[in-house]
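--- STAGE predict ---
source: upstream dedup step, 1 unique chain passed
mode: sequence only
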Amino acid sequence: MGFFPEISLPAPTFMEAPRKPLPWDDGVGVTALCDVVLAQSPEGTVLIRSIVSFPEMCVVTFEAILRRPLQHGPGTAGTNVPSFFAKDELSTGLVLVGYELSNGSWGSNFPEEHEGHRAFLGLGGSGGMFRGKHSFAMEIPPEGDVTFWVAWPVAEISETSTTIDASPIRDAATGSNAAS
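--- STAGE serialize ---
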């Protein structure tokens, strides 16, 4: 007997429905960056928790942290979790995030269509106790800089940009393990 007791589960079955490609379809990712603070105020903080590079895409995980609970407004529903999605009704805790690449292409989590705009591919998130986290897939950036944008009105964070060198993201993508 090992650490866990022996268990017996039926063989899994997976859906064969077509879907958008996911970053890990091409291999195991490599962490390129961790804990980049994008903006802070007395009411909250937004950071990139990690950027993990894969051969064809990278996954950017954002985290937003409130310093005190929200009292009123749509989307609070007693959960006080920052939201990274603009749904039918905008949430009071909506955190806007986006990126701009050196070639001029850009994307964001706000689902409006604009020329040259790519919506982030949302990969899932979590939240609780005044914290929200969400992961998005984006293309591997070309050489140069990547500018990340954030705005979070409820936390009194106006539109703010942070520029980083794309080299660690690109280097990690070439070092990721291809799927076999």
